[in-house]
UniProtKB/TrEMBL annotation:
This is Pyridoxamine 5'-phosphate oxidase. It comes from the Bacteria. InterPro entries: DUF1697.
């Protein structure tokens, strides 16, 4: 029986950090993960492992160190199972989002980060219709298109070094593609 694990990399192919997904896949194969798939060019990795093999935060930290060395990059990875990605997709389907808004999922390293972000969001001025919805150790952020980094919350969270190792964001369309690949 095989298990799917998703590794979400922070900051790939933005702000001068350039990485080809084929090179990333080859690096992971070289680390001993023969069944690797990448989704889009933003550092979304699916590893298929035999269910009898342990895979968790320790392996994730080892992979981050190895990829950081390989690509000369301060690598931060966020681990989820395929089932956890499915839970995010299910929760997202219950949220109504107008066409003129982005729907992001913030994947956090701990549930406490969601509480911290919730407090930041509550105290920040908001764009009309902007919302923050905690969902376990993730959160949905609904923001008008064209103002992602222009909102007070977006500028305080997404681009700040303090959150570099604590969260990564994905558009819900990307999350759906990751889940579809996990389901195959």
């Amino acid at each position: 029986m095989a298990s799917k694990y998703v590794l979400l990399m922070r900051g790939i192919n933005v702000n001068g950090v350039s990485m080809k997904m084929k090179d990333l896949k080859d690096a992971l194969i070289g680390l001993g993960y023969p069944d690797v798939q990448t989704i889009l060019a933003t550092g979304n990795i699916i590893l298929t492992q035999d269910a009898s093999q342990a895979f968790g935060e320790l392996e994730t930290a080892e992979i981050a160190r190895a990829l950081g060395k390989e690509f000369q990059y301060d690598c931060h990875l966020f681990l989820r199972t395929g089932d956890e990605i499915g839970d995010v997709v299910a929760a997202a389907s219950a949220v109504e989002v107008p066409d003129e808004f982005h729907h992001y999922c913030l994947f956090c390293d701990h549930k406490e980060v969601v509480s911290e972000l919730s407090g930041l969001f509550a105290s920040a001025p908001k764009a009309p219709g902007e919302r923050f919805i905690p969902v376990g150790r993730e959160a949905f952020w609904i923001v008008p298109k064209g103002s992602t980094l222009g909102t007070d919350f977006g500028s305080k969270v997404l681009g700040k070094k303090a959150y570099k190792s604590r969260l990564t964001s994905r558009n819900i369309n990307t999350v759906n593609k990751i889940y579809a690949a996990c389901s195959k």
